[in-house]
Amino acid sequence: QDYEAFRRERSRLLLARRNQLLLEFSFWNEPLPRRGPHVYELRTYKLKASPGTMIEWGNNWARAIKYRQENQEAVGGFFSQIGELYVVHHLWAYRDLQSREETRNAAWRKSGWDENVYYTVPLIRSMESRIMIPLRISPLQ
């Protein structure tokens, strides 16, 4: 009875819920514990739902990721398998927001980065960026 009462109370507070089952891109780093401090950026891309879109995205990012490895900022890259499909998440780590800006600007100065981005832009329906600060209990500090 207590659990049922809790569920009813919780449902009044819940505005929306969304679940996804994600798989990791094989070319991306595996997320490993990090010593901090860091801020994290979760970039979410909703791609056009067309056959071959995810393969084309993956092929371009398999080449592009090498331009973003110098500062070890690439944490993980994932794509949806269950839930809303054609959704990609990239997780990046930075010392702070200033470091984020400097690292992203440095990528644009590397020959080849712009070309990879150019080929992925037409695949995107929408995108979102979230800055996250890890809890003390998180292995990603």
Q: Tally the structural domains.
A: 1
State the oligomer. Answer: single chain
The rounded distance between the terminal residues' Cα atoms is 39 Å
- Strand/helix succession: HEEHEEHHE
Number of strands: 5
The pLDDT mean sits at 93
Structural class: alpha+beta
Second rung of CATH, namely the architecture? 2-Layer Sandwich
Strand order of the largest sheet: 1-3-4-2-5
The low-confidence runs, each spanning 5 or more residues with pLDDT under 50, are none
Helix content: 25-40%
The radius of gyration computed from the alpha-carbon positions, rounded to a whole number of angstroms, is 18 Å
Proportion in β-strands:
25-35%
How would you sum up the major sheet?
Answer: 5 strands, antiparallel
Count every helix, treating DSSP H or I runs of 4 or more residues as helices: 4
Q: Under the CATH scheme, which class?
A: Alpha Beta
Task: Look up the CATH topology.
Answer: Alpha-Beta Plaits
Global shape:
globular
